[in-house]
Design goal:
heterodimer; A: 286 residues; mainly alpha; two-stranded antiparallel sheet; 11 helices; 72% helix; 2% strand; globular; disordered C terminus; B: 237 residues; alpha/beta; six-stranded mixed sheet; four-stranded antiparallel sheet; 10 helices; 39% helix
Chain lengths: 286, 237
């Protein structure tokens, strides 16, 4: 039981990482980023390309994050910021287009056959008393923890982070104050894509590399974001972790509904708890 | 300090301001009066760079600011306190204030923050609370305080009395008057509450349907029969 929970947390931390990326972009730029999962997939394939040619797998991790952040910046500057004036729908369709570009590019160059991605940290599972954990799971948990600490520092203690939260609150007011909205948006897209890359490369060794391997994660992350209230980063983190654990328990005790569980959950949350666990409408009066 | 020359602008295809001219050098508080839809807020939004002019120019000191973006204009010393307050409800009072000085250094902000909290001791008590939990009057104080965090030379105040109880309105106006006298900041005030606005201001402009139809010192305007009839409740002269 305890083992199931810890392993669920490890899976959940990947959902959290992806969900946080989705929520960051949604709350500041008002775009539902459908490409969050596939961005990770795309960059993981690129990392795979170099690993096959001799790059150390553990080194791929930081490189993917940086490459993903640059990609996020370019996507924002080159596509999103140009579509911003016209409509929210346009930006959303761009992210859908990105998933097609990423999936198409990858299946053209690597084919559709599942590939085996090497573990980032090789070695036997580790025992903690009755709990047995893959090194990969430990890496997920530790990385997620580090990322969340850094992220909350950035969002609550740095100027650009506070500015990002202010834009999520009231973009017009932020503009009135002369906050450089475009710069903050670029920063958020770079950060979110960085998280996407991280989630991709942490998922790949647990599943196998395939052009659609992050689609499931994207769906789970979306569930996690809904569970967390859609506009709250804290909510997305907890939503991901809770979902990971619940899913693992369900898979063990009621294997029949393992796959459909998260879909049931979305429907249930939207029906009975539309603000999620941590979501807020505007606090108080206005 | 601010000169607006033949300013024409609007939203989409609709022209709202038609060749508006303002020019004030020494006045501490300048009021723009006008009914709903006269273009007062549009004027303020264009000065602070949220709206781009179609024609005409805006000079602040020696700088032509009509084609700068909001960040550049804010850096030059124009702070905009928007209509409806627009404080950040989920951010703390302190975060709200610090964002007002976004482009200034941390040291500068720390100093200005202390000063602003001295001016608004009420905000000091509430420094860690979320902006959304403040009352309407407190939120207006916060919005003004946030504007002052930019150390502006010109403060644009859009309808500060909107939606506030009369006693709070007087308090806000007192505050504005005090600021203009002691803080070396010029105030461009847009108000529907004409009487109170004229009471504290030095000069005023009257706008009707996107045009400035009348201007003068506040005393002149208060005595003008047209103004009395239309904006000051129509008592007999």
């Amino acid at each position: 039981m305890f083992n199931l929970i810890i392993r669920g947390l490890a899976t959940g931390s990947i959902y959290s990482l992806t969900a946080v990326g989705i929520v960051l972009i949604l709350s500041t730029t008002n775009v539902m980023n459908f490409a969050q999962g596939d961005t990770g997939m795309f960059l993981t394939y690129i990392a795979f390309f170099f690993i096959v040619r001799g790059l150390t797998p553990s080194l791929a991790l930081p490189l993917v994050i940086v490459a993903a952040a640059i990609l996020g910046y370019l996507v924002y500057k080159g596509l999103i910021s140009r579509a911003k004036e016209s409509s929210y729908m346009g930006m959303m369709i761009i992210t859908l287009g990105l998933t097609m570009i990423f999936e198409g590019t990858v299946s053209t160059f690597f084919g559709n056959i599942p590939l085996l991605f090497p573990p980032l940290v090789p070695g036997d599972p580790v025992r903690f008393g009755s709990v047995i954990l893959d090194r990969q799971d430990i890496l997920c948990l530790v990385t997620a923890l580090v990322v969340f600490v850094i992220l909350s520092f950035v969002l609550y203690r740095t100027k650009i982070g506070i500015a990002a939260r202010s834009i999520a609150d009231d973009e017009y007011a932020a503009r009135v104050l002369g906050i450089p909205i475009d710069r903050v948006h670029s920063f958020i897209w770079a950060t979110s894509f960085g998280l996407a890359g991280l989630a991709g490369i942490m998922t790949a060794p647990r599943l196998s590399l395939h052009p659609l391997f992050m689609v499931v994660v994207q769906l789970k992350a979306f569930t996690a974001a809904v569970l967390g209230g859609m506009n709250s980063v804290t909510g997305a983190i907890w939503g991901g972790l809770i979902l990971g654990v619940m899913e693992n328990l369900v898979a063990y005790y009621v294997p029949a509904i393992k796959e459909s569980f998260s879909l049931f959950l979305i429907v249930a949350i939207l029906l009975f708890l539309p603000n999620g666990l941590f979501g807020s409408r505007e606090a108080g009066r206005s | 300090m601010l000169r607006v020359i033949d300013l024409t602008t609007g939203y989409g295809p609709v022209e709202v301001l038609h060749e508006v001219n303002l020019d004030f050098e020494d006045a501490n508080i300048v009021t723009v009066l006008g009914a709903n839809g006269a273009g007062k807020s549009t004027l303020i939004r264009t000065v602070s760079g949220i709206l781009k002019p179609w024609k005409g120019s805006i000079l602040f000191g020696d700088n032509e600011i009509s084609h700068m973006d909001t960040s550049q204009i804010a850096k030059l010393g124009i702070a905009h306190v928007p209509e409806g307050r627009h404080i950040f409800p989920n951010l703390t009072v302190k975060e709200n204030l610090l964002l007002g000085g976004y482009f200034r250094t941390d040291d500068e902000n720390k100093e200005t923050l202390d000063h602003v909290l001295e001016l608004f001791p009420l905000l000091k008590e509430r420094i860690g609370q979320k902006g959304g939990n403040l009352s309407g009057g407190e939120q207006q104080m916060l919005a003004i305080g946030r504007g002052l965090m930019a150390k502006p030379r010109l403060l644009l105040l859009d309808e500060p009395s909107l939606g506030l109880a009369p006693i709070l309105v007087s308090e806000i106006f007192e505050t504005v008057k005090r600021l203009a006298q002691h803080e070396k900041v010029q105030v461009l005030l847009v108000e529907q509450n004409a009487r109170k606005a004229l009471d504290i201001s030095d000069i005023g402009y009257v706008m009707v349907l996107g045009r400035v139809v009348l201007s003068g010192t506040s005393d002149e305007l208060s005595k003008n029969p047209e103004v009395r009839k239309l904006y000051l409740g129509g008592q007999n002269v």
